[in-house]
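Example record used in the benchmark description.
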Amino acid sequence: MITRKTVTRLPSSRRPTMQQLALAMLAIHCLGSNAMAAPLNVQDDVCYSRTYSAAHLSSHPEQRVNSIRFSHTPSQYNRDEREIATRQDNPNFRAKLQLTFRDRSGNFFSDVFCFKSPNGQWCGVECDGGGFYHTTRADGSILIDFRKTGGIRIGSSCGEMDVEEETSWFDTTKSDDKLFRLDPAPLSACR
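Model output (structure tokens):
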């Protein structure tokens, strides 16, 4: 025996429009995913940091990076840098990437210059020193992404380092060092 259920319909004045349904579905999709937030505010001094635990490193034996920091300090800019960083159409800014490795002693850094590109926010080292993409996430953290770039030169710009040239390139193609999530940190963590 088939039974019929009665379906109660909302009055047409209370039914959502197609546009309202589409907006609701978009909001649900964005809230359920790692939605990207607004780009980094280039007028604020910021520090993002991550130090990996021994447990994390033991579960990722191919990862060489022990800690990573990304900082941007426009308070230290000169007048020309401040003007470039505050352009509304495409702000460019200078930042610093700091790394420590599990297989090398010392702190390593690269000064990078960042700007919008067709593939996202690009940060690169001068003189063809490689780079990475970075995005700001809705939770306030940032992602540093080496997956499309292959690495970055670490040390002073244009290869002027005190160590052998072959050790100055951070090669991300042969390791588990391709994507890093960094959380906001006090500025003192990046000094």
